[in-house]
Amino acid sequence: MNEHGGSALLTDHYELTMVQAALHSGAAARPSVFEMFARRLPEGRRYGVVGGTGRFLDLVERFRFRTEDLDFLSDNGVVDETTLRWLSEYRFSGNVWGYGEGEAYFPGSPILVVEGTFAESVLLETLALSVFNHDSAIASAASRMVVASGGRPLIEMGSRRTHEGAAVAAARAAYMAGFATSSNLEAGRSYGVPTGGTAAHAFTLLHDSERHAFTSQLDSLGRGTTLLVDTYDVERAVRTAVDLAGPELGAVRIDSGDLAATATRVRAQLDSLGASDTRIVVTGDLDELSIQALAVAPVDGYGVGTSLVTGSGAPTVSLVYKLVARARDLAAGTPLEPVAKRSVGKPSRGGRKWAMRRLDDKGIAIAEEVFPHVPEAAVNVRPLLRPLMADGEVIGRESVHEARERHRAVVAELPEQALRMSRGEAALPTVFH
Amino acid sequence: MNEHGGSALLTDHYELTMVQAALHSGAAARPSVFEMFARRLPEGRRYGVVGGTGRFLDLVERFRFRTEDLDFLSDNGVVDETTLRWLSEYRFSGNVWGYGEGEAYFPGSPILVVEGTFAESVLLETLALSVFNHDSAIASAASRMVVASGGRPLIEMGSRRTHEGAAVAAARAAYMAGFATSSNLEAGRSYGVPTGGTAAHAFTLLHDSERHAFTSQLDSLGRGTTLLVDTYDVERAVRTAVDLAGPELGAVRIDSGDLAATATRVRAQLDSLGASDTRIVVTGDLDELSIQALAVAPVDGYGVGTSLVTGSGAPTVSLVYKLVARARDLAAGTPLEPVAKRSVGKPSRGGRKWAMRRLDDKGIAIAEEVFPHVPEAAVNVRPLLRPLMADGEVIGRESVHEARERHRAVVAELPEQALRMSRGEAALPTVFH
């Protein structure tokens, strides 16, 4: 949102000039279908995760051209008077279906289907792509980290490494994909993501000594707090920490050095000091591969920053939003005709689509199936498109907690090879019927 | 900002718990200096570009804990009552200096210096890092693209590939670094970035034929518009375009295929049809290297999306915000003492710093010089820190246009090797005095 709370200018200039030209030609009102999909997964990834559905629905509800927006468009000659009048009354009135947030997706999966007039539907293109490309990139990276962590809790702490608004969305997407907590307070306020954190090196440096700093933190935050032990000398800090807090010390955090070796030494030291319930949290440039490599180390939690908020090498996931069908005229009952461009290397597949996930007898996913019509119900298939908006009203709103539950179930259903950290192909074939 | 316009919760949980514990220990009010710097440039980069200064100043002015923020913090037990009261009155009252927006930076350059009490200054850490890490990543990538383009105009069109709020900041940073225009309308409204755009493939597919689509666009947007010619067959589309618009056709856009070869063919075709003033704009997965490779092709403008908004391989630039000095007590006149952690691999350099750029007799930059005191004025050195805030008031506000002018001058001053596209080391040594 911009500072007056609207979302309509979070949009490419050309969406509005297309509306102008289509109003001029009369085609603006043609019934149309747009679909969002990815032609491929990011290099080496075995599955993608849909993120952003909930945020998109919130933003579509705020997608109105307000006076200050229209004044800007008018003053800068972006569109003509006819179009300004049309925009001033704009309100999406169509239907939207989508994969559930947290669902896995594969190349060609139609993760969003938007049905309305051309003009009202094309206007949502930029916003839809921004939200889903970002949030799905984060959710897809986060999901792999959760798999790699083998059940140990993950803490999202990447706010400082990404745009301040993207940080809130990233915290939400990471939680949805299974992270335990986030450092981002706005994600707590807006979405109910559990937040956490205790202290940084600056807090230790501020005080006259590490002992003074630890004493202050324990007095104020309690013995269950996490003390950061690598500002000066880890061994001395751990000794000081247990000396001051006793065995009830919640956790120590290690943010530098060889994390596996340091964690092993610190575990032995904590145990020898009687603090065997004190946990060890490691942070510092972790990604899914280093998390997996730490599986054998005595680590109780991972803090992940940069790699999470940058999608671990794939900060965007190349989702596109394409016109796949439109009616040739406006008369009631005119059939929608498939349309598709033939650009070199970027072909599209015309026609409205429906999708199911096929499972084997053990409930393991074996294929993504895409149909040009509503498929018949069958055993061992799970429909993937849910109704999200009907006649412009949001009907598919869910909390991030519901999306998180879906994601957990969806990952459990994926074949074993989908969950390998090594680079590979899409774990399921997409079958177009 | 969140939807009520505040920025204070765009912050890590631990900043607030540190404030709580420091209020408890009495150290919260110790005069302190924090500095923001990068230990290194992104792999292979020869210079970095400071981006985000203007946005940071705007956000600091809105950094207030409002009722809904305090309610969230209270309801979730983030901090205690004493801290809530302190936060409710929070307003940064210190001083800030920074490199000018658009300035080049190198490893160790102190691009932001924040002076205030520990508590008031540490609270700005997350927001400062979010803004500068994002905007500097985009500005740094954009600057290289501008160099690679050799004066041909660059169009920023990456909104759809990044978070919707990050998209606005990215458009601003790209314009600051020399891009000609952006597709992002909110960047136009908020920052005066020139916006542009005409039509996508969907517009052609909507109509009954490409000829029908082009006619509609030309009628509505005028002959100076840009027609997208690769929906079906480029040669046929160019013929149709000139047939309809005549030699006054503004431009054609090519978004797929071998851009150099296609542009060469289209140039010859346009010339043969008498449309020698019609420009050719190319788009489609361009980055600084492919832009440079197209230098020999008859291309009049480049549209850049994904690579720009993802920082062309470096979506964040590892800026950190570190406590470098603090007074040991609160008595007036107590000297600030340097502080620095000794974490393995992450050493920091204590003490407040000042920076100058040293130039040779021809005005070419030869070194980044960092001093532990205010350096004496001298010929052939340019001071780099500008006053941005004094006693909590913004005094260094600039428009993005002023930052753009600075960036242009700064790039002109860099040595030739800084502007090579190949991977290399930092183009200037950072000398610590």
TrEMBL record, chains A, B:
Catalytic activity, EC:
6.3.4.21
Keyword Ligase in the entry? The reply is yes
PTM field: Transiently phosphorylated on a His residue during the reaction cycle. Phosphorylation strongly increases the affinity for substrates and increases the rate of nicotinate D-ribonucleotide production. Dephosphorylation regenerates the low-affinity form of the enzyme, leading to product release.
* Pathway(s) annotated for this protein in UniProt: Cofactor biosynthesis; NAD(+) biosynthesis; nicotinate D-ribonucleotide from nicotinate: step 1/1
List each copy of the Nicotinate phosphoribosyltransferase N-terminal domain by range. 9-132
Kindly list the GO molecular function terms attached to this UniProt entry: glycosyltransferase activity; nicotinate phosphoribosyltransferase activity
Superkingdom classification of source: Bacteria
Is the keyword Nucleotide-binding in the record?
Answer: no
What reactions does this protein catalyze? 5-phospho-alpha-D-ribose 1-diphosphate + nicotinate + ATP + H2O = nicotinate beta-D-ribonucleotide + ADP + phosphate + diphosphate
Keyword tags: Glycosyltransferase, Ligase, Phosphoprotein, Pyridine nucleotide biosynthesis, Transferase
InterPro entries from the xrefs?
Aldolase_TIM, NAPRTase_N, Nic_PRibTrfase-Fam, Nic_PRibTrfase_pncB, Nicotinate_pribotase-like_C
NCBIfam families under this entry?
NAPRTase_put, PRK09243.1-5, PRK12484.1
What is stated as this protein's family in its record? Belongs to the NAPRTase family.
The protein's name is Nicotinate phosphoribosyltransferase
Query: What species does this protein belong to?
Result: Nocardiopsis lambiniae
